[in-house]
Amino acid sequence: MKHLTAAQRGNIETLLQEKYTNKEIARRMGRDPSTISREIKKGLDGNGVYRAWVAQVAYEANRKRCIQIPKLDPPANYRLRSWIVAGLQKGWDPSWQYI
Q1: Total of domains in the chain
Q2: What is the DSSP annotation of the chain?
Q3: Most exposed: 28, 39, 86, 95, by fewest CB within 10 Å?
């Protein structure tokens, strides 16, 4: 599991209110302490207090910006893509290493 859920963010908020340390929260949640530390920094409100909803909004905004661009589809790579497709049609093995 890579990303924290909204429920896990709520759990972090609750545990922080109960004065648990980042390390204790990480252990309870089965996460790395650095993950919890970054999450807390991301979810601080204007008063320096972690809020799960602030962190969730930041997470959703980051996910909207994060798109993967296919490397061979842009017009700049048209010649490379054509060369690769032609090679595959000739029977090239894409798993062979050229290095």
Answers
A1: 1
A2: --SPPHHHHHHHHHHHHTT--HHHHHHHHT--HHHHHHHHHHTB-TTS-B-HHHHHHHHHHHHHH--PPPTT-SGGGHHHHHHHHHHHHTT--TT----
A3: 95
Amino acid 71 reads: K
> Is residue 60 a part of any domain in this protein?
yes
Average pLDDT value over all residues in the chain: 89
Q: Does 89 fall in a domain?
A: no
Full domain range(s) for residue 34: 6-65
pTM score of the predicted model = 0.66
| pLDDT tens-place string over residues 22-55 | 999 999 999 999 999 999 999 999 999 999 999 9
CA–CA distance, 71 with 21 (Å, rounded to integer): 43
Dist. CA 42–CA 60, nearest whole Å: 12
Q: Judge whether 16 lies within some domain.
A: yes
